Amino acid sequence: METWKRGNVKIQNIQVINAILYIAEQGCKWRGLPEHFGKWYIIYMRANRWAKYGVLDQVFTVLQEADVINNQVDHISLDSTIVKVNPDVTGALKKRSTSHR
Fold this sequence. Notes:
Structural class: mainly alpha
Oligomer: single chain
Distance between the termini: 88 Å
Radius of gyration: 22 Å
Order of helices and strands: HHH
């Protein structure tokens, strides 16, 4: 019985893993992925699908146990331009009427 491969199979899984590691190390956007990894959107879609189904967790667990990679999260950074906060929370002064009666 022949098994059918799903999606774009021109890009090998190791290439996708290397691209994910590059993104994580460089902190760049998917669109900033160098062309030698392949089309960024195809890699993003596969990585997203793997993350959704827990494949990435399994892959990185196996790679860490085999001492192929040694990743440790020691800090996390959020881009403040994407965090929306209500002005009342920031302690901003409220607008007051300047007219006197």
